């Protein structure tokens, strides 16, 4: 009596497992390190403890995830040069300290680039110059202390720019002038220096964009004094900056005791995390440990089992009632 029902259940379960395996199989071409979804041309190499980018990533790949690895050495300058079809690239959650000049130069169709949670201290000049289709640039949680002159000049399609939690004190004059599609900026967690005139360009740009309805204009707070950068006038920031040169790092210790800066960063961290949660950007703080994985797997199996038993019971009762 139960035979056909059970067989059907089993068939459904097995075929689902088989289909998901077929869609998300290990890439053959890279020796089986990453998962490939051939229908979507996506390659997922996240959470693999990689210290180098796997070779032989298929040239037709459009989405490449390399986040949550241990990439730290400077990347080979041509790491992505054969992957010109990429529209999405994540290098987030690694240990990158620098990027080679021209590393993204072939990625002319890239729309989404994530470099968040690395150790980037600076960016090479022209690093984004070929990424004219980029709409989202994620640079959150790095150690950028300055931006190169004209770094965003070719990003006319960019809608979202995230520079949260870096060490920026100002941006080069004109840095945002080409961002004609921008709809949201996130600038929290930087020690914006509102005491010298290096901030005036950004203050004016933010003020103008606030009137035009740009989101996030109030996310840049001055390191000292509790004001938002967009409120700063030429009168507030009348002095010359310590370095006249915005592409040069100003040693933090020379301006304020380090403890003050860390306190400030600590204070503004709370609303920022809330905000990220609100937008759904929050990413897990820790990799799941093996016991956690095992627990979630056994939990999942338990759930499946009880679902199966329940449905079998319902079907059986139904069958029995119908017969009676
Ligand atoms: C970029 O995208 C366009 C339009 O989809 C396509 O015609 C072109 O071949 C792509 N370029 C590369 C280098 O893949
Ligand atoms: C900025 O600083 C760098 C490094 O100290 C120096 O090489 C460069 O000439 C400076 N540029 C200007 C405009 O002062």
From TrEMBL:
Keyword Glycoprotein among record annotations: yes
InterPro entries: Leu-rich_rpt (IPR001611), Leu-rich_rpt_typical-subtyp (IPR003591), LRFN (IPR050467), LRR_dom_sf (IPR032675)
Ranges annotated as spanning the membrane: 297-318
Keyword field contains Zinc-finger: no
Annotated SMART domains: LRR_TYP
Signal peptide stretch: 1-22
Keyword terms, alphabetized: Glycoprotein, Leucine-rich repeat, Membrane, Receptor, Repeat, Signal, Transmembrane, Transmembrane helix
Pfam family, one: LRR_8
Family annotation (PANTHER family): KEKKON 5, ISOFORM A, SYNAPTIC ADHESION-LIKE MOLECULE SALM
Protein name: Variable lymphocyte receptor A
Species annotation: Eptatretus burgeri (Inshore hagfish)
């Amino acid at each position: 009596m139960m035979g056909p029902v059970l067989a059907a259940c089993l068939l459904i379960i097995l075929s689902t497992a088989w289909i998901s395996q077929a869609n998300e199989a290990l890439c053959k071409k890279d020796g089986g390190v990453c998962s490939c979804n051939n229908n979507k041309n996506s390659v997922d190499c996240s959470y693999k403890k990689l210290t180098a980018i796997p070779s032989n990533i298929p040239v037709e790949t459009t989405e490449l995830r390399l986040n949550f690895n241990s990439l730290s050495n400077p990347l080979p300058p041509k790491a992505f040069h054969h992957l010109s079809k990429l529209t999405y690239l994540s290098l987030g959650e690694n240990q990158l300290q620098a990027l080679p000049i021209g590393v993204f130069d072939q990625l002319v169709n890239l729309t989404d680039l994530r470099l968040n949670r690395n150790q980037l201290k600076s960016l090479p000049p022209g690093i984004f110059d070929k990424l004219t289709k980029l709409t989202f640039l994620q640079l959150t949680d790095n150690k950028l202390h300055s931006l190169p002159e004209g770094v965003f000049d070719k990003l006319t399609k960019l809608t979202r720019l995230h520079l949260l939690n870096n060490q920026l004190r100002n941006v080069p004059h004109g840095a945002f002038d080409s961002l004609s599609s921008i709809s949201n900026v996130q600038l929290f967690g930087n020690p914006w220096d509102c005491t010298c005139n290096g901030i005036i360009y950004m203050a004016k740009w933010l003020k103008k964009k606030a009137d035009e309805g740009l989101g996030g204009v109030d996310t840049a707070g001055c390191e000292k004094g509790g004001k938002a950068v967009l409120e700063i006038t030429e009168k507030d920031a009348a002095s010359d900056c310590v370095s006249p040169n915005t592409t040069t790092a100003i040693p933090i210790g020379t301006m304020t005791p380090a403890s003050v800066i860390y306190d400030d960063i600590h204070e503004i961290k709370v609303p920022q995390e809330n905000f990220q949660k609100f937008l759904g950007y929050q990413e897990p703080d820790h990799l799941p440990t093996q016991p956690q994985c095992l627990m979630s797997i056994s939990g999942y199996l338990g759930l499946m089992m009880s679902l199966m038993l329940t449905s079998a019971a319902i079907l059986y009762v139904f069958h029995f009632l119908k017969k009676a």
